[in-house]
Design goal:
The chain is α/β, with parallel strands linked by helices and 237 residues long. It is 39% helix and 16% strand. The protein has an eight-stranded parallel sheet with strand order 1-8-7-6-5-4-3-2. It is globular and about 45 Å long.
Length: 237
């Protein structure tokens, strides 16, 4: 493995916990900390965006965070929200967070095409912070790359019209949804089919769970354990 090839654990956003403290503890257990969303307590991100609320803000502000903090805002297509509403929510989070070293992700599960709204949102956020896309659905890779995202978070298990090799050829920082939340983690398959591809890259790769962590039936401790196990195995090569 190249000395420049590093692996870091990364969180998506929505969590199943019933208390803010549990959620913050979990979010800070990743290499890249993230601002949790608690849909069982505050509704989904669209509701939070419209009402400009976030239960995790105060608790997170009281914690020591090393490195960047990842936050997430709704995408205009999946949420069907006006650009101004989304940007108002972004400014709300930004202005109320003590930690200012942010990575801002647009959450766009439904992403069939690029719109003017995407370009406007990206242009404004990029003035101050790196920006990424999270999509748990299918999307056009070339069109997505053309928007100039710094990070791309996606589920490697979905039937995309592109390969992992296609993603890794770009300068974009990949956040690979590599630990299934709804199924067992097949480490044997990953070591045989996925690890050899990943290990060819000489730049940082981020590892995350797939979508679905907000489901109350998910064992979040097992997900985090598998995430760290994959990181350790990759780092030892």
């Amino acid at each position: 493995m190249s000395e420049n090839n590093t692996f870091q654990t990364f969180g998506i956003g929505s969590l199943p916990f019933n208390t803010v403290k549990e959620a913050i503890d979990y979010a800070l257990s990743h290499d890249v900390a993230f601002l949790p969303q608690l849909p069982h307590l505050e509704g989904n991100m669209i509701k939070a965006c419209i009402e400009k609320t976030c239960l995790s803000l105060n608790e997170l502000n009281a914690r020591l965070i090393k490195g960047p903090l990842k936050i997430q805002i709704p995408g205009p297509l999946s949420s069907n929200l006006d650009t101004k509403v989304i940007l108002d929510y972004y400014h709300y989070l930004k202005s109320n967070l003590v930690h200012k070293d942010l990575i801002v992700f647009i959450d766009e599960p439904f992403f069939p095409k690029i719109t003017k709204a995407h370009k406007e949102i990206i242009e404004i956020i990029r003035e101050d912070h790196p920006i990424g896309l999270h999509s748990c659905g299918t999307f056009n890779l070339d069109d997505t790359i053309s928007l100039g995202f710094d990070y791309l978070s996606y589920d490697i298990y979905l039937n995309h019209q592109f390969t992992l090799e296609d993603v890794l050829q770009y300068e974009i920082e990949p956040v690979l949804g590599i630990v299934p939340t709804m199924n067992d983690c097949d480490l044997g398959m990953l070591e045989q089919q996925i690890f050899p591809i990943i290990l060819k890259r000489t730049k940082a790769i981020y590892l995350s769970a797939t979508c679905g962590l907000a489901d109350r039936n998910i064992d979040t401790s097992l997900v985090l354990k598998n995430l760290n196990k994959i990181k350790e195995k990759l780092s030892s090569n």
